[in-house]
Amino acid sequence: MNNYFGIGIDADLCLDFHNAREENPNKFNSRLHNKGVYVKMGLRKMVGRKMVKELHKELRLEVDGKVVELPPVEGIIILNILSWGSGANPWGPEKEDQFSKPNHWDGMLEVVGVTGVVHLGQIQSGLRSAMRIAQGGHIKIHLHSDIPVQVDGEPWVQSPGDVVVLKSALK
């Protein structure tokens, strides 16, 4: 992972987009059109199947060796930088909470959650931030079932097992 790792709803949308582009590459020739396709796919997810509706029940998250209780989310994003999804900042502005101010050289990764497609759209448009979940240098995710994941925009369906994401910078 260079920039971010997504699991759940954002990866599911990314996978749908990837598959559509693979089937008809000539239709995906402009950024504006591509964003429109993402919106259309997001709207379909809102009314259609919910592959990752209760993601918090389908995995166990450990950060620096400690199990982290997850709120009800449909997606988790692990950030190595604060820019995600064409420039959005899911971590959001600085605020008073138990988390350190993130930067790309501190050796820490930020873990955030999203509640669904609408929340993703609000993050993209700058109306809302994601839910801050954790910060740490060693993140382990135990998957109980097949779940869509993506690394820096490259999606696939991950089988049950452990996914480990490690810090990339030195303190």
UniProtKB/TrEMBL annotation:
UniProt-listed InterPro entries: DGK, Diacylglycerol_kin_accessory, NAD/diacylglycerol_kinase_sf
Top-level division of the source organism's lineage: Eukaryota
SMART domains, A to Z: DAGKa
GO cellular component: membrane
GO biological process, one term: phospholipase C-activating G protein-coupled receptor signaling pathway
Region forming the signal peptide: none
Chain segments annotated as transmembrane: none
Keywords of this entry: ATP-binding, Kinase, Metal-binding, Nucleotide-binding, Transferase, Zinc, Zinc-finger
Name the UniProt record assigns to this protein: Diacylglycerol kinase accessory domain-containing protein
Organism, as annotated: Anopheles maculatus
